[in-house]
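Course exercise 7: structure representation. Students receive a sequence record and must write out the corresponding structure in token form. The form below is the worked example handed out in class, using Phosphate ABC transporter ATP-binding protein (274 residues). Read each field label carefully; the graders check that inputs and outputs are placed in the correct fields and that the protein name is recorded exactly as given.

STUDENT ID: A-19
EXERCISE PROTEIN: Phosphate ABC transporter ATP-binding protein
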Amino acid sequence: MNPSTRPNSASDTLENNDIVIRTENVSIFYGAFQAVRNVFLDVPKNNVVALIGPSGCGKSTLLRCYNRLNDLIPGARVEGKIAYQGVDLYDPKIDPVEVRRRIGMVFQKANPFPKSIYENVAFGARINGFKGNMDELVERSLRGSALWDEVKDKLKESGLSLSGGQQQRLCIARTIAIEPEVILMDEPCSALDPISTLRVEDLMHELKKQFTIIIVTHNMQQASRVADMTAFFNAEATEGGSRFGYLVEYDKTYNIFNAPKQQATQDYVSGRFG
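STUDENT ANSWER:
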């Protein structure tokens, strides 16, 4: 398909009040290099949206634009519009720190602070001016990340003492403690064993009752298990030899894996390339 045209998309059937994030004709650049071209993608409230596709197709680049983490990269810029609750995230009046409070991030590699389990959860809330009962917030966040029963008797121990899967759930607890509305997850299970992966996947099903989740994953089975909507991205080479990513197809997850409209999607989900 022509990457400069808008793909047929389930976004077209969503009501405006169902949409948390609206991506309109977004292209992303690092200096002169165009990493992503002409993306239209709407994220519905209380859904899990998976971004899938081969390496280098711009999935993580797009994800980081949703909470303006790409602002931290010299030369990075976004063209088009990304609106959160109808507000342009890249309006000069918008504070990117506030964006990151409302749109939290869980990274590929668990990155707990070198602090106690309790302080890992409390830290972000404290610096954001939380005035309520911190003990209750820490417990609620750890319960929300399905970690409370495993750590409730060792809250003063270092977060670094936990297993890899527990550390990732601690990072999820730290994210939800600042009470965001959207949680971004960049391959959150890629470094985890199968049992820990299933725990995080089960957790996503629970979290979407309160949050909207966007996850980047290379694991198509994971996308089919956890996502309500799936966006398939591909990459195309330019005449100069560089590659840019573009959205091929976005639809309900069942349709992407069982009745895709684009041949490239069918080829990818059936394992013919990737």
